Amino acid sequence: MNVTEQEESYGRIFVQFLPQIGALRKRGLAGWAILSGGVIVGLLGIMTLIAPWISPYSPIAINVGPLLSPPSAQYPLGTNHLGQDMLSRVYYGGAIMFQVSILSVIVCLLVGVPIGLFASYKGGFTDKVASLVMDSIYAFPGLVLAIAIAAMLGPGVVNMALSIAVVYVPSYYRIIRSQVLTIKELPYVDAARMMGAKTKTTLFSYVLPNVIPSIVSVATINFADAILTAAGLTFVGLGLSVSTPDWGWDLTYGRRLLTSGAWWVITFPGIMVVLLALGFTLLGEGLSELFNPRLER
Amino acid sequence: MSLKSYIIARILLTIPMIMLLLTFVFLIIRVLPGDPASLHFEKNVDPETLLAFKKQLGLDKPLPIQYFDYLIGLARGDFGKSMQDYSPVSQQIFSAFPATLELAMTATVIMVVLGVFLGAVAGRYYNTMRDHSIRIFGITSYAIPVFFLGEVLIMVFGIYLRWFPAGGRMFPGLTPLGLLIGGKHYATGLYVLDSLLEWNLQKLSYAIRYLTLPAIALGLALCGIFIRLTRSNMLETLQLDFVAAARARGLKERTVVYSYALRNAFLPILTMMGLQFAALLAGAVLTETTFSWPGLGRYLVDRISFRDYTAIQGVVVFFGLIVTAVSLVVDILYAYLDPRIRL
Q1: Beta partners for B181?
Q2: Do B319 and A263 touch (CB under 8 A)?
Q3: B-chain residues within 8 Å CB-CB of A29?
Q4: A228 to B301: CB separation less than 8 angstroms, yes or no
């Protein structure tokens, strides 16, 4: 099978999936979750993209207003201890979350999917070793592992995404393995093998398409995990520098301002993090319910 | 397989997992780009001081020997020396651990009791408004960063209402002394328990008041998974014949649901408690930082700001070891309770 045919088979899956999006509303709770999750994520994405045009002030300029002013007509979400406008910081702050989570999901896909496919298809020793390594990482407290890696790599979007990706690769591996173990015994895979298809062709053209739905739902939920972990890394002091608007940073420094009664510094960025993680969680829950209706009722 | 041989096999399987874990942490701290000693000084150091510093901590030797030293040290309970003051890291870990344990245990109770109760209610009232709101609550609790939840609790109950302290573990100077035997005090480090052993009710009330908010934050943030688990288990069990039989005998619906059907969910809940232990510790790191709770997580975060890589390594290894130990215990307990698992 050449590349174009392979692309076509993925294309077919997508086309088969399209009408379902229209029929989502008839899908009960799963459809409702996908729609509401999609709307939340979509709106926050748009907000992040158009932040430069809708922000009243620069998100990093200090002393644009009085220090720690409560929400007012001029500063709708108040200002922080540096006199920065919270509304502008809320608009801009999602960019980091999106960058880190998208990058870490991509790394997870690039690493977890091939390892999962190959090791579990091969079986035997390869599978045992890969499973042992993945299970050991999986058993580790995720944030603590990410902290250790991020502490060594130093600050930065890419380093943050890498530390998060290491923690979540095993989730992809496990779901792929559980599916490949069943799929590889199916007659059509045997048929492909007997007709002389190479392992690579069998895996990517025949096995992978059947695993894609599970990968999509894991990846979507993984977005939520990545966002929460990124916020957590920032909170323990491994985030980006002060000069980057970041909801995680506001939550971290806002904690020290609580005693002075400045509730607005943490409240709005916090709500944004919750909304974004909630959007991805709803999307992921809905997708996995749609793909595996038996798992949930 | 008998229970005994299952336990032996399970313990043997733990050994390669621990070795992998230790190797993995070693690779992260010593082999990833950036030498921990130079990182500690942020490059503001002359070569001689750096070399002396490395010598003091054994970081000047070749990597394989460092690896060997590290494994031997751990086997003897030595977690290395702190980069900050050369004090043994193990001492710090053991003195901070009881605080984390107390927080984790209390949070576990909150998370399981709340999660199972809400899950059972959702299952009983399947597809009603009550079910939907409980599910939404579960998903939302999953999406809230535990430190944001903690900050909100501090804001409302600590600063605005002043019902609970906004942080810390004990009123200064009131550390409970523990059990008095023969003129000497023996303390566990768990303040609630120690106050009880000392029988000092004033200290007890303080210990509980300091513990409440952090434990609620951590328990609430993690209860979602138990809601879902209990709910789906309930839905399955309520279809089974023995439930129909119990209903046919004319038992009250409440009795059928909460004492017959819920019992069936016990094993999956136990398994989930084991699986969630790692998440609990990760959550504790953030919760302790939010509430200035002087446990292991707080220690870890403090060390990060000092760039004390040997201490970071020690805490990470320690976290990994307790998670491995807990999952071992849960698996054995599970095999004991459900003989099918040993097949």
Answers
A1: B184
A2: no
A3: 132
A4: no
